[in-house]
């Protein structure tokens, strides 16, 4: 399989409580952060989907909605809903607030798809990045089991299935725009 034949899903369903406003709608170079991410990921993936609780983008993107039987906010719900949407394939998952990810990082993780892993995610010296990597759709049932037990942490999957943590040195590549000052800094560095 080639990277260009695969799908990418950008997560936009969180509450953005630390940012104080919807991260996906923050402005970057005359576009929103989600438009920035979709345009960027479209360079490398065949299909780009946006994961949301509700379609807040007025049908601008291909949408995967969170399963409505789960009414709370959780990355595990998003992951379950995404993986349930796809059949027998890997999908690349990326949080909307990780704008520094580029082709080099994606290809480094992609290289492990031919091995026997079900999850391939980025790892830096200080953090595992569960919302940046490849997940196999067969994991949907395990995600559902966790949700039914009210277990919300995606990291719980790592002990259940064969997972590859791909090592990266540059922490800034995996920057998350959680706070307004991080967003302002990212914007200023783009100029």
UniProtKB/TrEMBL annotation:
Q: Which GO terms describe its molecular function?
A: GTP binding; metal ion binding; molybdenum cofactor guanylyltransferase activity
From the UniProt record, list the reaction(s) this protein catalyses: Mo-molybdopterin + GTP + H(+) = Mo-molybdopterin guanine dinucleotide + diphosphate
The record lists Mg(2+) as bound by 97
Any one cellular-component term (Gene Ontology): cytoplasm
Provide the protein's localization. Cytoplasm
Q: What is its EC number?
A: 2.7.7.77
Q: Which residues bind GTP?
A: 11-13, 23, 66, 97
Which cofactor is essential here? Mg(2+)
Which residues belong to any copy of the MobA-like NTP transferase domain? 8-150
Principal location: cytoplasm
Q: Which UniProt keywords apply?
A: Cytoplasm, GTP-binding, Magnesium, Metal-binding, Molybdenum cofactor biosynthesis, Nucleotide-binding, Nucleotidyltransferase, Transferase
Which InterPro entries does UniProt cross-reference here?
MobA-like_NTP_Trfase, Molybde_CF_guanTrfase, Nucleotide-diphossugar_trans
Entry's Gene Ontology BP terms: Mo-molybdopterin cofactor biosynthetic process
| Family that this chain belongs to | Belongs to the MobA family.
Q: What does this protein do?
A: Transfers a GMP moiety from GTP to Mo-molybdopterin (Mo-MPT) cofactor (Moco or molybdenum cofactor) to form Mo-molybdopterin guanine dinucleotide (Mo-MGD) cofactor.
HAMAP family cross-referenced by the UniProt entry? MobA
Tell me what this protein is called: Probable molybdenum cofactor guanylyltransferase
Origin organism is Campylobacter aviculae
Chain's gene name: mobA
């Amino acid at each position: 399989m080639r990277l260009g034949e695969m799908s990418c899903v950008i997560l936009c369903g969180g509450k953005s409580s630390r940012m104080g406003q919807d991260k996906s709608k923050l402005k970057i170079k005359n576009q929103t952060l989600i438009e920035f991410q979709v345009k960027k990921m479209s360079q490398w993936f065949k299909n780009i989907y946006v994961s949301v609780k509700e379609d807040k983008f007025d049908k601008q993107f291909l949408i995967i909605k969170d399963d409505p039987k789960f009414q709370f906010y959780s990355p595990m719900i998003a992951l379950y809903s995404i993986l349930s949407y796809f059949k027998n394939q890997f999908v690349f998952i990326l949080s909307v607030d990780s704008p520094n990810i580029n082709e080099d990082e994606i290809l480094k993780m992609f290289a492990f798809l031919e091995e026997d892993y079900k999850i391939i995610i980025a790892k830096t010296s200080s953090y595992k990045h569960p919302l940046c990597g490849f997940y196999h759709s067969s994991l949907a049932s395990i995600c559902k089991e966790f949700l039914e037990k009210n277990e919300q942490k995606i990291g719980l999957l790592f002990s259940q299935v064969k997972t590859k943590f791909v090592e990266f040195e540059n922490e800034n590549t995996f920057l998350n725009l959680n706070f307004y000052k991080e967003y302002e800094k990212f914007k200023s560095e783009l100029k």
